[in-house]
Amino acid sequence: MIERYTRPEMGAIWTEENKYQKWLDVELAVCEAWTKAGEIPSQALKRIKEKAGFSIKRIEEIEKVVKHDVIAFLTSVAENVGKDSRFIHLGLTSYDVVDTALSLLIKEALEKIRKDLAPLKKALKDEALRHKKTVLVGRTHGVHAEPITFGVKLLVWYEEIKRQLLRLENALEVISYGRISGSVGTYIHLNPKIELHALKRLGLKPARVSTQVLQRDRHAEVLSMLALLASSLDKFAVEIRHLQRTEVLEVEEPFTKGQKGSSSMPHKMNPVRTERISGLARIVRSNLQAALENISLWHERDISHSSAERIIIPDSFILTDFILAETADIIKNWKVNADRMKENVDLTRGLIFSQSVLLALTKKGISREQAFLIVQKNSLKAWKERLDFKQLMQSDKETSKILTKEEINSCFSLQPYLEKIDYIFDRVFGDES
Length: 433
Fold this sequence. Notes:
The chain is mainly alpha-helical. The chain has helices spanning 8-13, 16-36, 42-51, 56-66, 69-81, 94-130, 150-175, 192-202, 217-243, 272-293, 304-333, 338-345, 354-363, 368-385, 389-395, 397-402, 405-410, 415-418, 421-429; strands spanning 135-140, 143-149, 177-178, 205-206, 251-252, 335-336. The longest helix has 37 residues, at 94-130. The model has no long low-confidence stretch (mean pLDDT 96).
């Protein structure tokens, strides 16, 4: 079922064809290094490069017999190369190839994620600027708090994506390493110069020390970055889902021509895409747990990590890439109901301005405790009896002794809530060219 969520470019990275090609790239880079060291004749290297290839069908046939994928791969390559194949895999163990190639695959996939983050980042910036002064009610615990703007809400998301990009750069650095150091990392049948030359050719750096494998904290850090990104996308999706509830209806994900929301209720326009994002993000997060478990291997290595990685690494990249594109498309094409936002600001009949009244009273010299009791008494009355909070405060005898009618009225203005919006936006965008 994962194919359903696979975008073509990311899917192509995790094909068997690309995996074996990366294995071959590593083998050829090592052959080049041996040739430079004088161990492989230059003419033999030339013939190897001309003939080297593989057949996935043939690899599968051989693996059924030998039960070892790297041997099956090398046998398929050897059938194409001929007698010069004796120079291929010289001094190597399987994971010199597999782990180094996996780093190349992960790098390629991370660079694709970085590329696909750009449209989301742009969409968030565009929408934040568009709704910079679009007022809506802020909510804490799901309950109306004080007015904010929709632009500020999106600015929070934008800044979070910038942090995810920093994490991605760190993940790229951590995984940009290979190892070509033999069966237990001691170069017993290799010269470290072979590793240096081959890895430089591949665009990787040598791990300063390794066992038979690159240590799995590197891979866990990559999956942690993907899980964090997926969790941010889940967070955005959950907010959109809440804002699309019938009782709120401030934002709606795109509902395209011909789309149907329910098999039984024709009126339904459900937030199915954002719900899908939340569901798939759970899988990406759960895959991180397996990656963390993979860090603990026996001695210089065991193979318990391998079977899990064949699932969790491709699937995490494929799912994250899919929900990343979904999120960007939803934000670019959603419906923002500014009028409904204004209606919801007025929904509690002025209660969201209670702190303004509280502070106005304390500025006149009464204690905060006394001011709180005055405002809370009238707030609860307004809420329970569905009355206008401003009118209650104007008619309250204690308040009238302290504040004029004009001073009370000024507490119920939206303007003060917009005064520092420019400052917040400048702080976020001010350091960007």
